[in-house]
Write a structure and sequence with these properties.
By secondary structure, the chain is mainly alpha-helical. The chain has seven helices and three strands. The protein has a three-stranded antiparallel β-sheet, with helices on one face. About 3% of the residues have low confidence.
Amino acid sequence: MAAMKPVLYSAAISSCSYRVRIALSLKDYEKINPIKYVPALQDGDILVSDSLAIILYLEDKYPQHPLLPQDLKRKALNLQIANIVCSSIQPLQCYAVIGLIKGKLGPDESLQIVHHYIDKGFRAIEKLLEGCDSKFATGDEVQLADVFLAPQIHAGVTRFDIDMSKYPHLERFYKAYMEIPAFQAARPENQPDAPSLRQ
């Protein structure tokens, strides 16, 4: 019996889903979650939710194009950057957007909160990457940190008008990411369920 391809349940605008789409694409793969969040990945009888859990599952199941290096220092840096994005930036920016939608915050106040958390996270990442001269965040090959950074930078630029010139490493990496077909294909505006998004 032929193995079933994994099924990703996602939303076009979700930066969490964007991360997973990149990882799936890099590993040669082209709405069902108990807490009703996206993304969720159905792979046969296995259902995995949360972008980091999905990407680590894919890392173990499909070892081609490893996203985590063997070198412990570089591996730790990849995990640290991924966690800054998925724990210290993305969920906190969402609270501000949700506050705006629910009428608890005005547009300017919401955007100010989003900018605060993105700036705080991006400054921390820039500090971690001081002296970095590689093509990507932790080397010359795309790794886990890049999979997390690209969607966050993209959201910062396209949804929240973040001035990336304040973050020279991240700005340089983002330009390099946008040259990679897997990253281009995973962009929110290239998804079938994409609303009309500002580019």
